[in-house]
C-alpha cells in the first residue's frame, strides 16, 4: 500500500509542478520523502514482524573414508580479499553436496549418533496485519534474516582438506607408521581382552586401527 501511495504521489507531484500548483506539489513531495523514510526504517526494523526459526535436516555420507574414519572435505575459496570455506559431503543418493559459508554461518559438531546436515532458517514473519497491508509489495513475509548450517557428525568423522587427506595417505604408507599401527593394535587388543576375554580379536584389531588412523588424521588436520 505504502509503495502505491509513493508512486501515485510522485506522478501527482510532477503534474502539479507542471501545472504550477506549487503548494500542493510541495506537499506531495514531502509525502514522498516521508514514505521513502518509512520504507528505509522498515528495511532495518521490520515493523510488525517476529522471528521464526525452522530447521530442515538431511542424512549425509562422507566423500571418503579411511579405516572407518569418515571425511568432511573442506576447501578455501577466495573472492577478492575475503576467504570462504566450502564443505563437501554426499547425499544418501550418492550426489555431492557443497555448502559455502558465504551469507550463512556453518558449524560442525561431533556428538551425534548419526551424521546429518541441519539447515536453520531464521525468517521474519508478519504478526501485525496492518503492517503487512501497509508494506505489501515492499517487504515480503518470510524474508530470510539468517541461515545457519550445522554438520552434526559422529566422533568418527574428521574435517580435512584434500591436501590433508593426501598427507594422511602418505603417512599411513610409511613403514615406520605401519609398525607403529601394529604395535598400537597389539597393545589395544591385549588390553581389551583383559577386560573382556570373550571379545573377538579380529574386531578388536579393526577398532584399534580405526582409532590409530583417526589420531593420524587429527594430527594432520591441525
Description:
With 222 residues, the chain is α+β, with helices and mostly antiparallel strands. The protein is built from six helices and nine strands. It has helices spanning 2-18, 22-45, 129-134, 162-173, 175-195, 201-221; strands at residues 49-59, 64-66, 69-79, 82-90, 96-100, 105-109, 116-126, 143-152, 157-161. Strands 2, 3, 4, 5 and 9 form a five-stranded mixed β-sheet that branches. Strands 1-7-8-6 form a four-stranded mixed β-sheet. Strand 3 (69-79) and strand 4 form a beta hairpin. The longest helix has 24 residues, at 22-45. The relative contact order is 0.15.
Q: In percent terms, what proportion of residues is strand?
A: 25-35%
Counting helices, strands and paired strands, the structural category is alpha+beta
What radius of gyration results from the CA coordinates?
30 Å
- Quaternary class: single chain
Strands, total number:
9
Q: Indicate the low-confidence ranges by residue numbers.
A: none
What's the tally of helices? 6
Shape by Cα distribution: elongated
> In this structure, how is the largest beta sheet organized?
5 strands, mixed
Distance between the termini: 56 Å
The SSE string, one letter per element, is HHEEEEEEEHEEHHH
Q: Could you estimate the helical fraction of the residues in percent?
A: 40-55%
Whole-number mean pLDDT:
86
Amino acid at each position: 500500500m505504502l509503495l502505491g501511495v509513493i508512486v501515485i504521489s510522485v506522478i501527482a507531484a510532477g503534474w502539479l509542478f507542471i501545472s504550477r500548483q506549487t503548494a500542493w506539489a510541495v506537499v506531495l513531495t514531502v509525502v514522498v520523502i516521508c514514505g521513502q523514510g518509512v520504507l528505509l526504517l522498515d528495511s532495518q526494523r521490520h515493523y510488525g514482524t517476529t522471528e521464526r526459526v525452522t530447521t530442515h535436516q538431511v542424512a549425509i555420507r562422507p566423500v571418503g573414508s579411511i579405516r572407518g574414519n569418515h571425511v568432511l572435505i573442506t576447501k578455501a575459496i577466495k573472492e577478492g580479499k575475503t576467504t570462504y570455506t566450502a564443505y563437501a559431503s554426499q547425499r544418501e543418493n550418492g550426489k555431492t553436496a557443497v555448502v559455502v559459508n558465504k551469507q550463512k554461518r556453518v558449524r560442525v559438531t561431533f556428538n551425534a549418533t548419526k551424521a546429518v546436515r541441519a539447515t536453520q532458517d531464521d525468517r521474519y514473519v508478519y504478526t501485525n496485519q496492518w503492517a503487512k497491508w501497509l508494506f505489501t509489495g515492499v517487504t515480503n513475509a518470510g524474508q530470510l534474516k539468517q541461515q545457519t548450517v550445522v554438520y552434526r557428525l559422529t566422533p568418527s568423522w574428521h574435517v580435512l582438506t584434500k591436501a590433508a587427506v593426501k598427507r594422511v595417505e602418505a603417512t599411513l604408507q610409511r613403514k615406520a607408521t605401519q609398525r607403529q599401527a601394529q604395535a598400537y593394535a597389539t597393545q589395544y587388543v591385549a588390553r581389551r581382552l583383559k577386560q573382556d576375554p570373550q571379545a573377538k580379536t579380529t574386531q578388536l584389531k579393526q577398532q584399534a586401527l580405526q582409532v590409530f588412523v583417526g589420531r593420524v588424521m587429527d594430527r594432520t588436520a591441525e
